[in-house]
Recover the amino acids of this structure.
């Protein structure tokens, strides 16, 4: 029977056996190491030691009192698409997660504010518009942690996406696969793993090519100018140096090339800009492109003694995004501006986390985080000169170069105590201090407390409070130099550019999880957030990189209900969430907005653009033993209602909403168990958007929203993979 893992029992279900509360309110202490010399070359010793070190590492960073949803490889393989789906598609099936355009998800109606960790170590954010840094294939499990996070989690607090790789003692082998289908999709992948004495290794790589790299801005089956090529690679190596310690190094790369899809029929020769005597341009012929690259690496030393356990991990991450406009001047004619932009970020730092078991009732946890980030921006703009009324005065463009850079630092320390008040009641309380020194200089002391009560084996309650501090993403900020563009077609209406600030939040969360019948669990969770300097992001230029800004005040609330049934070969799950987020008074980066928007928002709360009223997901699979292996048919669905749009009356920013939609996917996989070369072979067939629903994710309106985006139409895909 697979186990569902939900600390604090906030809610249940993603894929069958995806989420559940722990059976005990307190996290189990790591097993004491056996007093033995360095492990032998025997693989059994390596596996046992690696598993114990993994348990000790996980005990350093428990998510006690928060909601944690875990998907392992077996669960992933049962959904339509299997391991070939993106990380965004996996996360979109979690309760309270909203699917958005450009490969984004919103956890509990927050924009971004997601932290990514590999084996417990923070990997700094990438500069990406829609590329995916991580491939789910690299992980043995993917976990989303949300709610009132314990003190070890800082900086990005709407959710933590935690990926864990294999532990060590791998059998020598690997796999190779190919997946493809509609829209010229080609997706080969391969991996290799093994063990040599105390040394274990794993490496994987994949390539993705299709004609729908970014959501289609029109409701046609095929997009115009939307080819993408994406490369991802990952490598992991671990050496168990003694029965109580190991050294691990891992890193990866993600490189993506994207054509920006075209929307025909844009512009009008009567109102377009004049370039060298020409004011006509077919918007379906635009040739805009974006490249996104990210490289990251981590070196970790772990010690797992009796009472003391710790991990120290220096890390490095380099990320770059480059946007190139239409070389024929289409941007200039249609918009009056053509930006060639390059943003880069180099982050170097160290993370250290530890725990010390004071007694049977108290376990202390502590840690620090230090990061230095160097960001650079280079934007070469071609613009037209204009007079005082904004009228174009010349059809010959001028070139303006705007470049800048900044060194910024993040600092953080925390201390917390897991206190077992009784066998059924646990209090996890702590405090962290964070400081940012970049485009803003701020700091905050943040108390955290979670109470977990398990009155019986089938019932768990939790109640939590967290004070959160969220620095603005330095990699997305460039110091505005508005005066450079005065008297040109890039001159903003508003000349105010107050700096982006850190968000400060009071977060309250309560929930219950109940086992109703054997195999059937339901969960209910509710939360409320009070925000100051609410951080949001929007697309304000042609480049598909978002820019942050603040509302002076904000609040958010939500309720999540979920159910999961797992018994024998049948797995079922369903989730539904209701929530909203609102903000008032934009107090930074005002030059992105029109004056009428600023005037209204200064005195009224409005929905943030990513606030969705209702979100639901669900699915089912059956594992059938058919004599040659297992046959697994599966189905899942996603429902969304309420992403924001312009007010139909033209009065309230984000005052409208998009129509609701439902999409369904089906898949079937045949896993062969032999004989001979057939052993380890898997064949699958999938249909995405089964009913060919044409639906809007965005309509191009709303505060900080760019072009419209439609969801992918029906597609047929097939794949084959072989383990060796």
């Amino acid at each position: 029977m697979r186990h569902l893992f939900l600390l604090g029992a906030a809610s249940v279900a993603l894929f069958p056996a995806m989420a559940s509360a722990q059976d005990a309110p307190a996290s189990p202490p790591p097993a004491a190491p056996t007093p033995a010399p360095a492990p032998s070359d025997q693989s059994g010793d390596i596996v046992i030691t690696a598993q114990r070190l993994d348990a000790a590492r996980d005990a350093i960073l428990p998510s006690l009192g928060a909601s944690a949803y875990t998907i392992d490889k077996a669960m992933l393989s049962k959904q339509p698409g299997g391991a070939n789906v993106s990380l965004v598609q996996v996360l979109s099936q979690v309760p309270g997660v909203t699917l958005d355009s450009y490969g984004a998800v919103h956890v509990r109606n927050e924009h971004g504010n997601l932290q990514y960790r590999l084996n417990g170590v923070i990997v700094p954010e990438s500069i990406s518009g829609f590329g995916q840094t991580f491939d789910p294939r690299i992980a043995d499990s993917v976990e989303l942690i949300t709610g009132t996070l314990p003190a070890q989690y800082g900086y990005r607090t709407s959710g933590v996406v935690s990926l864990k790789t294999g532990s060590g003692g791998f059998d020598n082998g690997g796999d190779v696969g190919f997946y493809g289908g509609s829209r010229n999709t080609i997706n080969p992948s391969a991996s290799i793993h093994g063990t040599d004495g105390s040394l274990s290794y794993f490496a994987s790589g994949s390539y993705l090519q299709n004609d729908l790299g970014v959501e289609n801005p029109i409701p046609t089956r095929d997009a115009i100018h939307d080819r993408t090529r994406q490369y991802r690679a990952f490598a992991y190596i671990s050496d168990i140096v003694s029965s109580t310690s190991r050294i691990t190094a891992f890193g990866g790369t993600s490189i993506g090339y994207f054509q920006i899809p075209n929307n025909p029929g844009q512009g009008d020769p009567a109102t377009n800009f004049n370039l060298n005597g020409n004011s006509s341009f077919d918007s379906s012929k635009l040739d805009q492109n974006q490249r996104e690259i990210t490289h990251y690496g981590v070196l970790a030393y772990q010690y797992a003694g009796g009472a003391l356990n710790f991990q120290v991990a220096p890390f490095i991450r380099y990320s770059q995004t480059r946007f190139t406009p239409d070389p024929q001047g289409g941007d200039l004619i249609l918009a009056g501006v053509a930006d060639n932009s390059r943003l880069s970020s180099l982050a170097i730092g160290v993370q250290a986390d530890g725990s010390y078991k004071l007694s049977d009732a108290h376990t202390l946890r502590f840690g620090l985080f230090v990061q230095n980030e160097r960001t650079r921006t280079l934007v070469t703009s071609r613009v037209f000169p204009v007079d005082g009324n904004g009228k174009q005065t010349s059809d010959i463009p001028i070139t303006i170069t705007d470049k800048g850079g900044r060194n910024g630092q993040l600092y953080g320390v925390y201390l917390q105590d897991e206190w077992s008040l009784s066998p059924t009641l646990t209090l996890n309380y702590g405090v962290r201090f964070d400081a940012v020194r970049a485009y803003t200089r701020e700091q905050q002391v943040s108390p955290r407390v979670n109470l977990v009560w398990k009155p019986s084996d089938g019932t768990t309650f939790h109640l939590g409070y967290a004070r959160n501090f969220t620095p603005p993403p330095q990699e997305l900020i460039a110091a505005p130099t508005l005066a450079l563009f005065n008297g040109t077609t890039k001159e903003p209406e508003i000349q105010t550019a107050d700096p982006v600030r850190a968000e400060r939040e009071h977060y309250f969360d309560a929930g219950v999880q109940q086992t109703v019948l054997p195999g059937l669990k339901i969960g209910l969770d509710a939360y409320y957030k009070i925000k100051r300097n609410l951080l949001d992001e929007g697309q304000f230029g042609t480049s598909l990189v978002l820019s942050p800004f603040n509302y002076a005040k904000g609040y958010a609330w939500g309720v999540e209900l979920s159910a999961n049934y797992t018994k024998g070969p049948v797995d079922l799950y369903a989730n539904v969430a209701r929530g909203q987020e609102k903000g008032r008074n934009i107090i930074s980066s005002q030059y992105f907005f029109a004056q009428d928007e600023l005037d209204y928002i200064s005195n009224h709360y409005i929905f943030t653009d990513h606030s969705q009223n209702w979100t639901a997901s669900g699915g089912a699979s059956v594992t059938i033993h058919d004599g040659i292996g297992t046959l697994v048919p599966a189905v899942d669905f996603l429902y969304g209602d309420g992403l924001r749009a312009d007010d139909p009356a033209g009065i309230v920013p984000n005052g409208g909403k998009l129509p609701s939609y439902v999409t369904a996917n089906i898949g079937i996989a045949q896993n062969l168990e032999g004989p001979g070369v057939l052993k380890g072979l898997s064949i699958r067939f999938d249909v995405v958007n089964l009913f060919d629903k044409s639906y809007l994710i965005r309509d191009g309106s709303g505060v900080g929203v760019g072009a419209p985006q439609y969801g992918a139409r029906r597609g047929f895909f097939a794949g084959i993979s072989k383990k060796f």
Remarks:
- Confidence is low (pLDDT under 50) at residues 1-41.
- The two ends are 27 Å apart (CA to CA).
- The first helix runs from residue 43 to 60.
